Amino acid sequence: MEILKTNTLRFLLMVGLLTVTSGIFAQKMVSGEVQDEEGGTLPGVNVTIKGTTEGTITDSKGQYSIQVPGNDAVLVFSFVGYMKEEIPVGDRTKIDVALFPDIESLSEIVVIGYGVTKKEDATGSVQAIDSRDFNVGAITAPQDLLTGKVAGVQITSNSGAPGEGSTIRIRGGSSLSASNDPLIVVDGVPLAGGGISGSRNPLNAINPNDIETFTILKDASATAIYGSRASNGVILITTKKSEVGSELKVNYNGKLNVFSSNKRVDVLGADEFRSLIEERHPTHVDMLGNASTDWQDEIYQNAMGTEHNVSIAGAYKMLPFRASVGYSNNDGILKTDNNERFSGSLNLNPSFLDDHLKININAKASVTNNTFADRGAIGAAIQHDPTQPVNWDTTFTGIPILGETDWGGYYARLQSNGQPVQLATANPVALLEQRDDKSTVNNFIGNAKIDYKFHFLPELRANLNLGYDYSKGEGDVYVPQNAAFAYNAGHGGGTDNTYTQIKKNELLDFYLNYVKEISAIDSKIDAMAGYSYQYFLDDSYGVNSNVANDSAETTYPDNPKELVLLSFYGRLNYTLANKYLLTFTLRNDQTSRFSPDTRSGMFPSIALGWKIHEESFLSNVDALSQLKLRLGWGVTGQQDIGPDWYVYMPRYTYSLPGASYLFGNSYYQTIRPSGYDENIKWEETTTYNAAIDYGFLNDRITGSVDVYLRKTKDLLNYIPVPAGSNLTNYINTNVGDLENKGVEFSINAKPISTPDMVWDVGLNVTYNENKITKLTLSDDPDYLGVPTGGISGGVGSNIQIHSVGQPFSSFFVYEQIYDDNGDPIPGAFVDQNGDGQITESDKVHKENPAPDVSFGINSGFSYKNWYFSFSGRANFGNYVYYNAESVNGTYQRLYRPEGPYLSNVTTGVYDSEFENAYYMSDYYLRNASFFRMDNISLSYKFNNIANQGINLTVTGTVNNAFVITKYDGIDPEISGGIDNNFYPRPTAYVLGVNVNF
Amino acid sequence: MKYLIKLTAILLGFVFIYTSCIDDLDTEPIDPDETTASAVFDDPGAYKAFLAKMYAGLAVSGQQGPAGMPDISGIDEGFSQYLRAYWEHQVLTTEEAIIGWDDQTIKDFHRQEWGSSDNFIAAMYYRIYYQISLANEFLRSTTEDKLNERGESDQTKAEVAQYRNEARFLRALSYWHALDLFGGGVPFVTEDDPIGSFMPSPINKQNLFEFIESELLAIEDDITAVGTNEYGRADQGAVWTLLAKLYLNAEVYINQGKYTECVTYAKKVIDEGPYTLEDNYEHLFLADNDHLQEVIFSINFDGIETRTYGGTTFIISAALGGDIPPEEFGLGGGWAGTRTTKALVNKFDANDGRALFYDESYGQSLEINDESDYQQGYAVGKFKNVTSTGAPGSDVTYPDTDFPMFRLADVYLMYAEAVLRGGNGGTVGQAVTYINQLRQRAYGDASGDINSGDLTLDFILDERARELYWECHRRTDLIRYDRLTGGDYVWPWKGDIKEGTATDSKYNLFPLPAADVNANTNLEQNPNY
Amino acid sequence: MKHLKYIILAILGIGLLIACEEDFDDPVLQQVGEFTLNELNAGDFEPVLSDDIAEDTFATFVWTPVEYNVPTVNEYTIEVDTAGNNFENAVVVTTVTDTNEASVSVFNFNLALTGKLGFEPYLSADVEVRVASIAGETNPHKAYTNAISMNVTSYDPPFEPEKLIVYGSDDTEIGYLMPVDEQGTYEGYVYVEAANEIQFGDEARETILGNDGAAGPDDDVDLNDDLFEDQGYIAVDSGYYQVTVNTYDYNFDMYETHWGVIGSAMPDGWDSDIDMTYVPEDNVWTITQETADGEFKFRPNDLWDPLNYGDDGADGVPEEYGANIAISAGTWTITLDLSEYPYSYTVEEAK
Ligand SMILES: [Ca+2]
Ligand SMILES: [Ca+2]
């Protein structure tokens, strides 16, 4: 911190000096002011003389002055995110310019793997979203910035907890058992993937406020350069940087968040519950209490949060820098839940040797402190007997002091011997308040990129990127011995766990890039070849114990492991006549996860582009400003099959405590030979993509249409092997094929664009369909498939299945039969095969959790200093299995003999009138199509306050403003499609202040 | 030219980096709980640790108790435990037990409605093949050549030779279970098969029977003498008992009566073994039931060292619930799932001390109108986690109670039945004497004694129910009498009807799991599935 | 600004789409086609029911199987009720699946009539029968056939439980009797610890026999006291009783017994017996006695009549008025167990 402070001072001094030293020699001086579309000043705009490298930058008031060679000169005004303006100087000496935002953000340059390209020259399906288009409001995680913005990208937050991670799917996911997460590359460092103990979100290392752009690579011609890890798409994140000559800019961004909890599962009230027990279990009315507790009200709260971010950006001579610090602290709407984060980032990108040597150093670090509420409380609050009090109170219960002293004062269902009933629903409030579950996660992502343009061959560039991604999660969980829910009569109760997980990811990446324009044949060649080495270490260890640290209840899990990925890659871009584009990439990946015989995978891709609008026959079609056809084909790979990093190797595993065996009078530790597949190899996905990019009316309307087909073969699949052929029954092996096909459409329009008033609308639509085409070696039609989608209720029951000819994770259910009133007839299902029995063979595939069609819509409207925006999303045809209802919506739940104890039921029981549970009934399969208004925001910008060059923006935002759906559960948007004890997503009201100077 | 040199240098640099890193791809496990197959036997103790795993395969579900590192997948780990699955197949399918849970297809066992996609059946099947694969791997890894290669001492070699006999016994035991539960169309693998991608061929009933028989006969004389092995390990007594069981059911398996052979091996156990009946029947099923002289082979559990959600944890916990005080079972609480039907209860006289039921006075009813209601049907308090002195076991969640897989009483009854079915070498008089010993223990006196006129096959079937209920014999017994399926003998909720109804004879065998029929195209599904 | 309304309209449109989007078609169960129960003509059923033909088939009902618009699983129940009652008190006589016929035994049909429908036995009455198809559980969908009517005469079925429990005044079980013939005779010994009131009944307590005016124990073993359903208690003093009940004839007898041994092997010869001792914990009579080579028998109350036990065939099971039991000289513990039928005795060398 001390270092940071002195550095900051030094930078400030340097910046001061820099401002004083400006060139003054000129043949002719031109000056003026650059404004943005709202009439505000635009500092930092590059003003260059066309055809030269000379230029300047507008100051904090948007003013510039530049010396030009003469009246023939043309000034080029450019600024990231705005459309470039070229203005001939003529005889003027004062030129004021207004820049308009580029509708296609970052129209000029998009980041692709190992390099950049011009948007218009991109041959792959690449979409960039920059900071101006990000979602606003209570954004605690980077991916929240993107939700709903990009066709083909589904981002579903995993719950309503603060700082929670998300499930990201690009074009539906191409793997079954292997990971379907996209590869995330931050400033050129591919992240390890997967989370870390104690963390809510693997992307926590990155403060959303530091992010400059997201670039989504969707098709294989764009992703194949990342080869083995790119089958599920790639998200490139670049963080904000400064540039040479930048003036010192300070930005403060603060937010105050209020989260409201208003979602509840409908359960019986105490009186209703009491009378139902009296009616149905008259012999157990003695188990009822006298209280009237709404357990859901007891566990939820309206929560608060704050966020502060400060960044300083500028340049000291040739050393542009940007530094930021951030702090956020949000409570969850589930009581005791909290997420606090400190983050800092530093970016230095100096250039040396006449810009021949560019160095870019990025460091991002964060410390996250989590307090985890026990989410078991959510289900417990639905089920807990509402006639019991939160705390013992003899006026309610008449139960002696025993309970008060022994169980922390919290009500617990007790046996006659005074001990808690083990299987009874835990007191939800006790679960929250008696459990102390804290973690600290340290994240660091750092990299140094050295880019050298050869002096002897300026067309050739060498780029070395050294990266280091480190995270460490530490936490402990403590539950006191007097917690009834953690009681153990045998060995003393409670929980005393500590854990640590360390993940390291070291990267060495080196490539050479050769760019040459060959005017003789009107061609441009851009060739690149490189090498990448990545080492991953994952080490976790800890102690799990009870409070007494009883040896019988203590284990010491530890699981260190290593993985190495090694790659060669190359890319050739060939452009002919600035109209015809060809991209060819090839990557060879090797993974330590597979045996030497199979570890090498080759991933080629090829893409063609045709800029049709450059053709002469379209030159007089004025309305058409852009028309490009893209065709791509490529192969990508997958090796990320989860936690087992040594799958091909014959190994033995020693037994841990509790799994020894008695011979004579001694217990022997055992060894187990593990199952393995020495032939396991890469899963391969082939993608075909055809697309048209279009622009009309001078690009006031732009967009693209993509059609794709993705076929995955040799699926890395965790499937049953022939019994007796291996050392276990399921192994990871390459069996099966699946395909995804879809259409993506996007349109961005600017219906109004005047200096005072600008209106933008963006809409994207995605259609995706996926199907498993092969699952096993044989094609036995009797084989149903691999069950998946575990539900709560019957232990081990699955509601979904991967079957050939069906989308993956299709629901696999009995068809419920209804009576004339539309009410389900308990236990009556369609006997599909008509054999007079309802058995497994009567289950049918029905729907799946993925939407058929999804929409994203966003719009911004500015009028003078006002800015109003909203963004929302809709999903159609996504189905949810309402597990909370299937478990709790039966009369059978009321009295539980395994305690015994009483359990509350959902009001849905009145609809179904189900006595017993029918988990496999499609009655619980619900259409969960929805429209969600993700955010609505209104801001006002105060410009140049007190003439000090201070700009202040005040913003009010509502996140998750409303949801339109027919689904009657807590939330229709459930990743995986099984709605059980879902942590409700709160509505957030955010007041934000943004100050620039 | 200068460029070329520089470029070459750069490329060479590339090659250097590449080659220096390529070895990094040969990562090996760094987890201290894991080692490679090539290194594991550097520790001579590994042989016994492997042996322990083969036995533990019957008791626990993986390498961490009670759960966490499962041996087999595709099913809830607790469900995948060998004894739990075996109990469900052998007991739940009969009048001895009914279960109230909604776990997947668990109710189909008692209803006799299961299909080839049943996850519980798959668990049993894959558990059986897990044991077989372990034994095969042990036999592969401990050949004479391999031991010499590792330079093992003569003493180690002698011990390993014993372990190999036990591995073959355990393999024969699991193959017997395969034959009994799934019939002869099951895949057949031995230590001569490799590990990896191949599809084992099915064997047939005759050949599988003969394989089991020949294996047991081959080790009969070499395995540790009867009654002399360490507790928990198989010896001659276990081999003989398994032979007797195989022969008793030979008519079912291969349509050929082998009752004389059954008598021969039952007699060996009785006459040559040190086994005697435990004085108190109840003590056979309690937390301190280790080292009992009646038990020939047991699966051992411990509240601290050998923990599982299957095994006796399941048998005891699932039987406990409702108004029965958990302390009576030595547990902190029960799972309220399994009860028995009146078809079993009514087999007992009032004075038969083996009727260890919890009746109306504990809120249970004899009649079962709702399968899901735990309090309908008498609860069974046979297996408990209390010691013979009434103290609780070492843990209140995971019982210490061992499971007596083979015990002398069963051998007595097999002797009697084989004699009655025409086996030579034994007498009815001796059979009556053995059975009266069981009945005297049950009644506390001679009041339950029978005479030779009473000794009928029907009597033996009922007596087996009374003596051996919930010990995983019932399904096999009923099939031997042709009463498991069909309508000759029904019990509550057989065929999913309260009063019980006739069921299809296909249910005498379980289907091969659809998953394996699909993965292994050599297999043919059992008839009518 | 006017463009904003298009956006609002677009959002509303999406909302509407969601609201209107059809779920998959939910099958609604409807019976289609005929579901009829075949008429029964005279001769197709037993018009007069009686105990003699209790095991015979009353009738075989045949119907056309029900058809539903969706295939599902159903059970059939045969229901009977008084004619004209619209099956308001319908009683299910049997349940079947997967078939379109069911036979009902005379016993079961009669049970439905005299039991739940409360028909007066031996009077003819009109009844109606129909078949219900039941799909689903707990609150199932039902479809019915037409009703067919019959005129039948019911009978009073004999009460024949597996064992007959002797209940004390607080309904506690104090003993039980086992059938000794096929004619409804039950016999057993009951130890009444203290003066009590007793009844007889089945285990389920569905039928309880008593008689609050009954004389109780007497000096013979003749069945000379009547029993009635649900009628009071019989008062007895403490004692060890032989109890005989006939459930066909609804009568009983109690005879108090104190057992002894008598015979040539005993010190007093055949002249007088030597009393045995009752051991309540074991429910047995026992004596340890020095004997000579000879014979003996068991007899109660120092009387040969109305009851004594010898042993035909020397199988350890005593018979009334059976053969003398041989015994050799020695000291023996003789135990007589009358707690369970068949009775038993043992002679073991005294320790
Ligand atoms: Ca069916
Ligand atoms: Ca034990």
TrEMBL record, chain A:
Q: How does it sit in the membrane?
A: Multi-pass membrane protein
Decide whether keyword Transmembrane is in the record: yes
Protein keywords: Cell outer membrane, Membrane, TonB box, Transmembrane, Transmembrane beta strand, Transport
- Annotated localization: Cell outer membrane
Transmembrane as a keyword? yes
Mind telling me which InterPro entries this protein's record contains? Answer: Beta-barrel_TonB, Beta-barrel_TonB_sf, CarboxyPept-like_regulatory, Plug_dom, Plug_dom_sf, TonB-dep_OMP_SusC/RagA, TonB-dep_OMP_SusC/RagA_CS, TonB-dep_rcpt-like
Q: Which Gene3D superfamilies match?
A: Carboxypeptidase-like, regulatory domain (2.60.40.1120), TonB-dependent receptor, beta-barrel domain (2.40.170.20), TonB-dependent receptor, plug domain (2.170.130.10)
The residues covered by the TonB-dependent receptor plug domain are 118-234
Return any one Pfam family short name. Answer: TonB_dep_Rec_b-barrel
The UniProt record lists the TonB-dependent receptor-like beta-barrel domain at: 414-960
Instruction: List the GO terms this entry assigns under cellular component, sorted alphabetically.
Output: cell outer membrane
What is the first-listed, main subcellular location in coarse terms?
membrane
The record's similarity note reads: Belongs to the TonB-dependent receptor family.
The record ties this protein, via NCBIfam families, to:
OMP_RagA_SusC, SusC_RagA_signa
Entry protein name: TonB-linked outer membrane protein, SusC/RagA family
Origin species: Salinivirga cyanobacteriivorans
From TrEMBL, chain B:
The record's subcellular locations are: Cell outer membrane
Report any Pfam family annotated for this entry: SusD_RagB
> What GO cellular component term, any one, is given?
cell outer membrane
Q: Which SUPFAM superfamilies does the entry mention? A: TPR-like
> Gene3D superfamilies attached here?
1.25.40.390, SusD-like (1.10.3780.10), Tetratricopeptide repeat domain (1.25.40.10)
- Ranges for domain RagB/SusD: 375-529
Q: Kindly provide the name given to this protein in its UniProt entry.
A: SusD family protein
- Show the taxonomic lineage: Bacteria, Pseudomonadati, Bacteroidota, Bacteroidia, Bacteroidales
Automatic annotation (TrEMBL), chain C:
Instruction: Enumerate the Pfam families for this protein.
Output: SusE
Residue limits of the SusE outer membrane protein domain?
Answer: 27-131
InterPro entries noted in UniProt: SusE
Quote the PROSITE patterns the UniProt record gives: PROKAR_LIPOPROTEIN
Q: What is this protein called?
A: SusE outer membrane protein domain-containing protein
Its domain of life reads Bacteria
